[in-house]
Amino acid sequence: MIATTDADLIIVGGGLVGAALAAALADTPLSILLLEDQPAVFDPPADDWDARIYAISRASQRLLARIGAWQRLDPQRVQPVASMRIFGDDGRSQLAFSALEAGVDELAVIVENRELLRALWARLALASNVTVLAPAKPDRLAIDAHAARLTLVDGRELTARLVVGADGARSWVRGACAIAVAQHAYEQFGVVANFECAQPHRGTAHQWFFDDGVLAWLPLPGQRLSMVWSCDAARQRELLAMAPSALAETVAAAGGRRLGDLRQTGKTAAFPLQLNHVAHMVQARIALVGDAAHTVHPLAGQGVNLGFGDVAELAGILGAEAPQRCGDYLVLRRYERARREPVQLMQSVCDGLQKLFNNRNPLLKTLRNLGLGLTDQQAWLKHQLIRHAMDA
Ligand SMILES: Cc1cc2nc3c(=O)[nH]c(=O)nc-3n(C[C@H](O)[C@H](O)[C@H](O)COP(=O)(O)OP(=O)(O)OC[C@H]3O[C@@H](n4cnc5c(N)ncnc54)[C@H](O)[C@@H]3O)c2cc1C
């Protein structure tokens, strides 16, 4: 065993999942270094809304509350989802979920990426055992029986018992450890933008399945909504090139003007969508969490919730072990085994739905619209679907 390390644990990536892992292990006996490529500045201009938003499940809310982040969110920037309406592509089929019917306070809560990051990093600032290096970028990683040695681009050398890759879908840590990843590009992009709407949304989320994509309107506080339009490259280019008034008109028309006229606020952005499936989430002295370990299509809004599930599991396992054992393969394997099934299930469900709806076959079109309508009539089935999504 080596005599000293700079830390028990180095987390590479201070996005939502990496920051949540550091916060979940705050004030434990583990010493933690959190490396983030970007400067840590999250203060929002008061009147501006982040176009990157998340539907946070009940399970993720519980985790975020437990680690001291949820209570640091500005309540004015948090929107509960009271109901959800899903529309098929035949102009008639619908599926509706409501918190009232399900006997719960809300189906999910919508929060901006930037606001969640701010709350997590505010919690980290109080942690006695977490040192933040930001901006900092790793250059080389070497692993031996005793430690992982990380050399930064600026020449600093760090050693730790465990390195966690929380560095997103194009993970540097995953590449440096040569962990194989099967990638399936959906040849789709998620186009995001925020709007003010003429009519109140009453906490309702809307989603339309078209045969060439999926449009979601997620409610934001006040008369605002956030759009995620999963579409092909040509439509993405078209949407990105539109002036704000033309985009607002196109989005309002695509959603059948359910909330009246729209007015765009802020900018339009787009992200490529792909499914990443890694061969291993762990090796000796290495663990992957969040998008570094898995990505899913955003149609079910579950990507970051899966990452928070990784955090709950890994923090539970590491917190119960002696710090000296945190990089042991057998300890890390317990994390991998626990996460394999929920991750694969969510990837299969999202991938299956994407394939079912992104298809012009007339038989499939009839079947999927029939499926929406039939599900809508099954109160018990809807109840189960809600419970599963909330606790995912
Ligand atoms: C259009 C779209 C809509 C989505 N909507 C939803 C939704 O509604 N609900 C949901 O749950 N999920 C959603 N997702 C998925 C969600 O964005 C991701 O699952 C989530 O951001 C993953 O968080 P992460 O911390 O693992 O990775 P990231 O958010 O990618 O964070 C990685 C962090 O690591 C840092 N980093 C990267 N490389 C390095 C390096 N070499 N060194 C140091 N730091 C590094 C980055 O700067 C970043 O801060 C959506 C995704 C897309 C594309």
TrEMBL record:
The keyword Oxidoreductase applies. The keyword Transferase does not apply. Pathway: Cofactor biosynthesis; ubiquinone biosynthesis. It comes from Chitiniphilus purpureus. Keywords: FAD, Flavoprotein, Monooxygenase, Oxidoreductase. InterPro entries: FAD-bd (IPR002938), FAD/NAD-bd_sf (IPR036188), Ubi_Hdrlase_CS (IPR018168), UbiH/COQ6 (IPR010971), UbiH/COQ6_monooxygenase (IPR051205). Its cofactor is FAD. Pfam families: FAD_binding_3. Residues 7-344 form the FAD-binding domain. The lineage of its organism: Bacteria, Pseudomonadati, Pseudomonadota, Betaproteobacteria, Neisseriales. This is UbiH/UbiF family hydroxylase. Belongs to the UbiH/COQ6 family. Transmembrane segments: none annotated.
